[in-house]
């Protein structure tokens, strides 16, 4: 690095790096794909395995059932939901399947989503007998709110889009989108997988009907655990046709002749949750809650801005939203052969990822500016 280079921004949360052993072996900059494994998550999973080994199914009666309630409550607190507004699921896709089975599209056939959303959102609707409107993005970064305004009409059943686009890290004006949906009498579903954890989320302030997120990325919970927020006021209008015993109000009556769904969000649950994933997520939340989401956002934003500035200063043209307030911890760097970059960086100890035409660099609160600065040196040295 040149002697005149400005001092890297100091990250007040950098001491948390010790909680994540991966940094002893590599420089991890891929949290938008998979959050790093914490010591807390590993300890929780080990604890669950020990319980399984010691007492088998007897754990359900005291520890494991309580763990599910604990997780629903903690996901709820994280996004300012009320008790009874959280359902647990193994993936966003399974949540969308259950919701899709219950949203009435007989009178309103239109589903509005965008080309920038994670494909599993439109995939849910494309095979169904509905009209899917995929809004174009003029810049590949975001979709102006005015395009939602023009597309959402009296035939629209659902507006389904992201809080943060996985393609660009751009933060959407969710409140405005929810208002557009509701003015037209449609429901609003937000995919918050790339937001919850790295951004403060207040579902009441956002005014959405449904919000989905999970452990994989910014919530440090790993694979196999996600959640659905279903707003108490609108939950009742969606009666799922794809069901399971966890959605039954009298689950332990074991009555095969009658299905009576829960009145709250648990009507959208299906089968037994993956307990190891539940426990790794509880460990991830131990860390997120101890650090605090406001502090996480401040640290991640400072690192993101430094990365954007340093990459720009080196002649790269990051494909990100125009202002810091709209940017998050996903920075797309246009490259001619991003796959080769990923391999070369991996050989030098950097873990990042690529998307078509781009190297994707994803800082989080456990990173320091020297991580991405060193990465840029290696990247542009080839
Ligand atoms: C925005 C977004 N939604 C959804 C998913 C994944 O959904 P699922 O839990 O169905 O694998 C991802 C990434 O894996 C994502 O980035």
The total strand number stands at 12
Can you tell me the CATH topology of the largest domain? Aspartate Aminotransferase, domain 2
Beta-strand residue percentage: 5-15%
Question: What is the CATH superfamily of the largest domain?
Answer: Type I PLP-dependent aspartate aminotransferase-like (Major domain)
User: Regions with pLDDT < 50 over 5+ consecutive residues?
Assistant: none
> How would you write the strand order of the largest sheet?
2-8-7-6-5-3-4
The CATH architecture category of the largest domain equals: 3-Layer(aba) Sandwich
User: What is the CATH class name of the largest domain?
Assistant: Alpha Beta
What percentage of residues falls in helices of 4 or more residues? 25-40%
Broad shape: globular
Q: What is the ordering of alpha helices and beta strands?
A: EHHEHEHEHEHEHEEHHHEHEEEH
Mean residue pLDDT: 96
Q: Structural class from helices and strands? A: alpha/beta
Hetero ligands: pyridoxal-5'-phosphate
> How many individual helices?
12
Question: Which sheet architecture does the biggest sheet show?
Answer: 7 strands, mixed
Gyration radius over CA: 21 Å
Distance between the termini: 15 Å
Count of the separate structural domains: 2
